[in-house]
Design a protein that fits this description.
Layout (H helix, E strand, L loop, with lengths): L12 E4 L2 E7 L6 H14 L4 E2 L10 E6 L17 E3 L3 E9 L5 E6 L6 E10 L2 E12 L10 E8 L27 H11 L6 H11 L2 H4 L10 H11 L12 H10 L6 E5 L5 E4 L2 H11 L10 E6 L6 E8 L3 E3 L7 E9 L4 H14 L3 H4 L2 E4 L3 H10 L4 E4 L1 H14 L4 H12 L11 H22 L6 H8 L6 H7 L10 H12 L7 H23 L6 E3 L17 H11 L6 H9 L9 H4 L12
Parallel strand pairs: 3-4, 13-17, 17-18
Antiparallel strand pairs: 1-2, 4-10, 5-8, 6-7, 6-8, 8-9, 9-10, 11-12, 12-16, 13-14, 14-16, 15-19
């Protein structure tokens, strides 16, 4: 007969990474006659030995007694952030047990016919480090984990000296990936399934909501607590056979927005102007700070323009969306930085005064934007261009390539120009490498534009009566505001300004809201979640676990030296606080942040809110 000791000495219990819920226990034996009484008696005799958490990202020798009932899901015991484990068979033995009068297990007797329990050992080898092993010892009344005795023993050990290793990719994916594989906790999959089943969420938003539910990237208990990716969410949704639905309408959406401003989102719903045509300003401190970081300096390759675009079909209102590029990061598989959503305005009219109220709202928060914003990118909407130019006096105004091309085609059609001449003029302007917009200098641009304007006048005169009109239209409205040399001079690239990022973000918002128009209050909540989704992806990138984005090579020195799963919540939060202070040009950031309007500067053109007809062009 063998029996486990009733009490363990304090030195035989070591906290794993100072976690009170996860304890390494030093055992004198791992044989069944010692282990089984220990597991079955420890709740009464040695409760201090029991862990209520899995040792995440453990890469050392250690033995744990884990209470499965304290885990959000019993199957979470298999998710330890160490990637793929290969089970090398399993061994089971049947026992009858003897108990004393108090119900404590005293001894085991091997028995096949009159067995009370089955003790099973599951040995595993770590795919990322074949010298690293894991054994799970369970007392079972059936193979299903719900029929196991709640306390299990999990033993980790190296063959030879312990060593640190990098978790390998899964290896079974069709597409090659260098992303370390982390098994997602079963409890997280349950949350993800609940969210994809919610009719308010599309798949991407359900994925984001699940990240929030587990505490966010920094606050999650482990990497395995986070849902893996969009593919996982999509697979779960398909498995459940779900389709999107619609949500109930609010009785008074504007009143609901005001309630949200007071209670839930005071730091996001910045201004609500209540009149016949209400406007709502939405942004976080971080969104505004990122515009200062990335859009208010002149470092080539690290500066971003501030994109602005107005969209509709999201509800009974218009939405002015701003965008910027996070130039500390790259999109995986490319050389360009990811685009992020900045401040947003919900409005009822597309008027210059409305747009200007949004610009002035931003300037009240950061006056330096009026002086240091590097460049803006808009479409051909005159009211938006004028409002932006009035508020951001020193910013170079860029016109997006695709919008100008549409406008030119429409103007040529309006003038009755033939399709053949329409196509020729578009080639003259936009043809890659040889078109006007690909000019390498202002001198080359001006020389070529005069030749083209003369040619277009002659060709237009051959097709229609009266004085030629297209050349004067082009000279007045288009000009060089998207030319290659302008982009080069601004440090924004070596091609004409063809970016259509705000429109792309608008499409993403429509997808985020399931392509279903929403009431005002529901849409505000959707936009808040959408803004947070960019922050989550940024955090994932800094911890090296994003499948979409990665930190640029020149900034990787600032990434944490240990894996996400091996860090405590406080360590992760400290890491993000540290990297949030990194910016491409600290001196310009400081200048923009400390700028204040003087009495002379605070004139009608900058803070009065009156529309202006300023047309600022670069060059």
């Amino acid at each position: 007969m063998s029996r486990s000791p009733r009490k363990f000495r304090q030195e035989e219990i070591v906290l794993f990474r100072a976690n009170m819920d996860c304890k390494i226990v030093k055992l004198e034996s791992l044989e069944n006659p010692f282990v089984v009484p220990l597991l079955m008696n420890c709740k009464n005799d040695n409760e201090e030995l029991i862990s209520s958490s899995v040792p995440h990202a453990i890469q050392e020798n250690g033995t744990f007694l884990i209470d499965l009932d304290k885990l959000p899901n019993r199957k979470d015991v298999f998710a330890d952030d160490n990637g793929v484990w290969t089970m090398k068979g399993s061994r089971s033995k049947s026992y009858s047990i003897e108990k004393d009068a108090d119900g404590r297990v005293l001894s085991l007797n091997k028995s096949q016919e009159n067995a009370d329990i089955i003790v099973r050992r599951r040995p595993y080898v770590c795919k990322s480090c074949p010298d690293y092993h894991k054994t799970i010892i369970s007392i079972e009344y059936g193979k299903d984990i719900d029929k196991w005795y709640p306390i299990v023993l999990v033993h980790y050990y190296f063959e030879g000296e312990p060593k640190q290793f990098t978790v390998a990719p899964h290896g079974n994916r069709k597409a090659q990936s260098t992303q370390p594989y982390v098994r997602t906790k079963e409890s997280t999959k349950e949350k993800l399934a609940k969210n994809v089943a919610d009719v308010k969420f599309n798949t991407k938003r359900a994925l984001f909501q699940t990240v929030k539910d587990v505490g966010g990237v920094s606050g999650a208990a482990s990497t395995s607590s986070l849902p893996r990716n969009y593919t996982q969410a999509k697979h779960i949704k398909q498995k459940l056979g779900l389709t999107p639905g619609s949500s109930k309408k609010s009785n008074d959406p504007l009143l609901a927005v005001l309630e949200l401003q007071k209670s839930t989102f005071p730091g996001f719903i910045r201004e609500v102007v209540c009149n016949d045509l209400p406007t709502i300003m939405l942004y976080t401190d971080n969104q505004l700070d990122n515009i200062v970081k990335f859009c208010c300096h002149k470092k080539t390759g690290l500066v971003s323009e501030l994109g602005l675009d107005v969209t509709f079909q999201l509800g009974p209102f218009y939405v002015l969306v701003t965008t910027y590029k996070n130039t500390l990061l790259n999109v995986k598989g490319g050389s360009h930085s990811p685009s992020c959503m900045g401040p947003v305005m919900i409005c009822m009219t597309k008027e210059e005064g409305t747009y200007l109220s949004f610009i002035h709202c931003l300037l009240r928060e950061v006056p330096g934007l009026s002086q240091y914003l590097h460049a803006t990118g808009t479409d051909s909407e005159l009211a938006l261009r004028n409002a932006t130019a009035a508020g951001m006096q020193n910013a170079s105004a860029l016109l997006r390539y695709l919008h100008s091309q549409r406008s030119i085609k429409a103007k040529l059609k309006e003038l009755g120009i033939s399709q053949s001449l329409n196509s020729k003029i578009c080639r003259d302007i936009y043809a890659k490498g040889s078109g006007l917009l690909w000019s390498d200098s202002k001198e080359q641009f001006n020389e070529l534009v005069e030749i083209l304007l003369e040619t277009w006048n002659a060709l237009e005169s051959e097709e229609r009566r009266g004085p030629p009109q297209f050349a004067s239209y082009f000279r007045k409205f288009m000009r060089e505001r998207m030319a290659k040399y302008i982009m080069q001079d601004l440090g924004l690239g070596d091609q004409p300004y063809h970016q259509n990022i705000p429109e792309a973000v608008n499409c993403m918002i429509k997808e985020w809201t399931n392509f279903v128009p929403q009431d005002l209050d529901k849409f505000v909540i959707s936009i808040y979640d959408f803004a947070e989704s960019f922050e989550i992806e940024t955090e994932l990138a800094w911890f090296g676990i994003s499948e979409k984005w990665e930190v640029k090579e020149t900034y990787r020195q600032h990434m944490p030296k240990v894996p996400h799963g091996a860090m405590t919540t406080d360590e992760r939060k400290a890491t993000m606080k540290r990297v949030s202070k990194i910016c491409p040009d600290p001196e310009m950031y400081k200048q923009c942040r400390t700028f204040k309007f003087s009495n002379k500067v605070a004139t009608a053109s900058s803070v009065s809110g009156q529309p202006s007809s300023v047309h600022k062009e670069p060059g």
